[in-house]
């Protein structure tokens, strides 16, 4: 099955390829200045000021169960309609147009919307809304 007009932001976590539908992303930036979030789980790196809005910053690798990684080069800020949340990631690779992607299957992973077949290999397509919902549960409860 080929994707229908979507574009995907391809990035690395612990050397593994992941992707987000570009419609779920507001901006990609350098890791921001952070302020601590009292009593937050360790996977929260802190909070940032994003154009006047306070946004929680999540170490995405640690959150989804990988070992933490100290050299996080990019911060992916989610679209505001999803959540006031951003993901620190190892590296952003590129934006992948729909004509270079085949959606292989659904994935049983809690945060996965499927697996993408790309010219350079497979990538797990994350569902940003599912990650945001679970992140809200961990910090609120």
Mean pLDDT: 90
Quickly give the CATH architecture: Beta Barrel
CATH fold name: OB fold (Dihydrolipoamide Acetyltransferase, E2P)
* Intertermini distance: 39 Å
**Treating each run of at least 4 consecutive H or I residues as one helix, how many helices?**
2
Order of helices and strands: EEEEEHEEEEEEH
Main sheet summary: 6 strands, mixed
Bin the helical content: 10-25%
- Name the beta content range: over 45%
CATH homologous superfamily heading: CheA-289, Domain 4
Annotation, overall tally of beta strands = 11
Radius of gyration: 15 Å
Tell the overall outline. globular
As for the number of domains, it is 1
Description:
The protein is mainly beta and 141 residues long. It has a single domain (7-140), classed as Beta Barrel (OB fold (Dihydrolipoamide Acetyltransferase, E2P)), CATH 2.40.50.180. The chain is 12% helix and 47% strand. The chain contains two helices and eleven strands; from the N terminus they run βββββαββββββα. It has helices spanning 60-63, 128-140; strands at residues 7-13, 16-21, 25-29, 44-50, 53-59, 74-78, 85-89, 91-97, 102-105, 112-118, 121-126. A six-stranded mixed beta sheet has the order 8-1-2-11-10-9. Strands 3-6-7-5-4 form a five-stranded mixed beta sheet. Strand 1 and strand 2 (16-21) form a beta hairpin. The mean pLDDT is 90.
Could you write a compact summary of the structure shown?
The protein is mostly beta strands.
